[in-house]
Amino acid sequence: MNHINWHTKSPEEVEKVLETSFEKGLSEEEAVKRLEKYGSNELEQSKRRTIWNMVIDQFKDFMIIILIIASIISGLLGEITDAVIILLIVLLNAFMGVIQENKAEESLAALKKMAAPHAKVRRNGRPDIIDAAKLVPGDVVVLETGDFVPADLRLIETSNLKIEEAALTGESVPVEKDNVTLQDEDMPLGDRVNMAYSSSIVTYGRGTGIVVETGMSTQMGRIAQMIQSEEAVETPLQKRLESLGKILGIAALGICAVIFLVGVLYGKDILQMFLTSVSLAVAAIPEGLPAIVTIVLALGVQRMAKRNAIIRKLPAVETLGSATVICSDKTGTLTQNRMTVTQLYYNREFMDVVGGSVNDDHLKLLLTTGILCNDTQIKEDEEGPKTIGDPTETALVDLGLNYGMDKRSMDKNFERVFEIPFDSDRKLMSTVHKSDNGLRVFTKGATDELLNKCNRILLDGRVEELTQEHIDHIQKANETMASKALRVLSMAYKDIDKLPEKENGPQLEDQLIFVGLMGMIDPPREEVKDAVKLCKRAGIKPVMITGDHKITAVAIAKELGILEEGDEAVTGVEVEVMSDQELKDRVKNISVYARVAPEHKVRIVKAWQEWGQIVAMTGDGVNDAPALKRADIGAAMGIVGTDVAKEAADMVLTDDNFSTVVAAVEEGRIIFSNILKSIQFLLSCNVGEILLLFIATMLNWEAPLLPIHILWVNLVTDSLPALALGVDPAEKDIMDQKPRDPNSGIFNRGLIARILYQGAMVGLLALTAFVIGQRIDITTGRTMSFAVLALSQLSHVFNVRSNTKSAFQVGFLTNTRLLGAVALSTLLQIAVITIPGLSNIFKVKALEGQQWLIVIALSLAPLLIVEAEKMITSRFSNSK
Fold first, then answer.
1. Active-site pick, 329, 522, 650, 656
2. Does the annotation mark 329 as catalytic?
3. Is domain 62-88+234-308+664-879 annotated with CATH 1.20.1110.10?
4. Secondary structure class of 78 (helix, strand, coil)
5. Structure confidence by residue, pLDDT tens digits, 49-74
6. Across-strand partners of 462?
7. CATH topology for the 6-45+109-229 domain
């Protein structure tokens, strides 16, 4: 079916276009034909990846491929132990990757769960209940309180109909529906009051509509299509590690070629030179790095879970540390997702709500009106009384509870004996209550409509005639409250002698006494202001994206500090007419987007990404799912968030707290900083190994290390401290730094220079040990070189914890896991040298006391040398 703006079509036009009858509906024969033509009213589900596909994907990484090749070559050359160790590391990394990915990508399954299983229809002129999947365009559907809307409907009849569209628009306040014909073709979804959309919920009243779209053609279907089409973005860490893998792979091949050619030129055995070259290639690649990074990320996941952030996709942990923009939904994320009365107006004065006891009779009457003229229910749970009902009405009852006025006891003391329900034409609701003092009418509603029903006003404890001056004051107060984005309700009452006949009920709403105004809003979360300040301090731009009205969005954004002087606020209609280039040009200056559609959110995220920014997106509704998936990091709300949003997200916030996003950003920065420490440590160690073997080969010496020594140091002695670096505590100023440039590689800020000079230091110390030891014999030389290489790296690990601060300033006890790892690695290294069975496997021998003293002195040298370098650098910097 061609795209039609159904909200602009009159009921008669809809009947004509769809060739149906509102009174009779479709015939069964016609419904069958249309089902064949349009297909089932269900959401299509894209084919999910199998476990096998996930396993294969784990082996596409360049570094993993290099390791597999190294393992195969080692096996072919008879180095079975080496081959098995490398292969085990590769398999461990793949296993952990599959476990994480197997939890993801169930968005469409969650969408399907939200679909209505049955629908009430008119067919052949008779009411019927059918499987919602069999609905077709032209079917007439009846909606009642509590129903899921089964397809997209153009409403033809409504009776006090309210529908909650939070899943689509993100706004939890139910929308009052009508059958009026609208004119604006580009009207935002939330303003199309004559439409009922699939998977929204009827919260009040009843209505009847004609099905205009089904299945993937519905608004919910469009979101499903966007979820399918949005590809997950590769994380900065994945990009950096892929780049690192290629660099190391090329370096390894280059080293192999150089050493092989030099050896051949020296006239050495070609097979022996090939073995030496492969050993050097293995030394060039930190075999444990992929697994270490995965484990460090997993440890980060555990820490983040303690801070109320559940990570669904492992590499996304680090992405948070790169975040430069946080695009946040308003309702339920920046705000409390609960309407709250914040301001009152009576006796010609404004009063901010503070709670407590009520000593003012006028205030008590105002509160009583809001509490009794109200259909909210109160239920007790573990946390105390909980209000259930329409958000606007629950706000009034919650207000009463704040002032010690409980609706349950008041309903008993003031029995409701008559009522006139709210409807969208009158915009009023009235109830009559009986007490010992007689009958009293309470009325609440829109200010203009209520003032038309009032002829008196309560002022200073007296009832006076309502004059034009009074009306002007009230209307001005109403405008003042509305300008603050408050939703305003007016309250009135009167006493009567007897109940009217039912047909004369509307007369109850005449000659009322005006009491006052109540202004309510979904207020900001208390902690969000500080979180926004911290974002800006950390160089991160917070952006509000909401389906709510612009005036409300702007008021909340200003209060939170998101919208500041010079920032723009735009609507979805404005975004719609912008080209992608225009949106990109303006996006940096826009801090608030209001009344946006799901596709707008995706465009906004893409516009930021076009600037090379790392975008985090928070949200809770189905409408947020495509943008959550498109963003570099998607964060869904765990309490009020839909399953669809959670499944599309990388992270779920268990406390629905925006400040948790900021805490997660901090954790992401810590994790990346610690991964850099691990990389610096591992690569400087590998540089030492390469230099040791390279110099020996160039000088035509015997190899100071055997392949098994290299693998032992790389995979065992180094890996435990590298893992412990992954849980190093945060630097104090980590959230005062600007976000890392997402386009910069791992090697920046002098990291290459530090790796080379620290690696050279370790390699030369090990070479010194080899020279000293080989005076006795080659095995002693290799044993001392092996011992110094391993133990000097264990002292060197304390250097990389900070590139500016002394290891003694950082403190050895601030990371007890690192101390434990160093101690364990030291014991393991001593064990392979001193225990006869192990020393035979490693082709080493026990050392004498004097030799051990030399080993210890050389092994402690890296810590002392780098400490001296830091002290000199610090003094030089301070003298400038």
1. 329
2. yes
3. yes
4. coil
5. 677 877 787 777 665 676 677 678 76
6. 459
7. 2.70.150
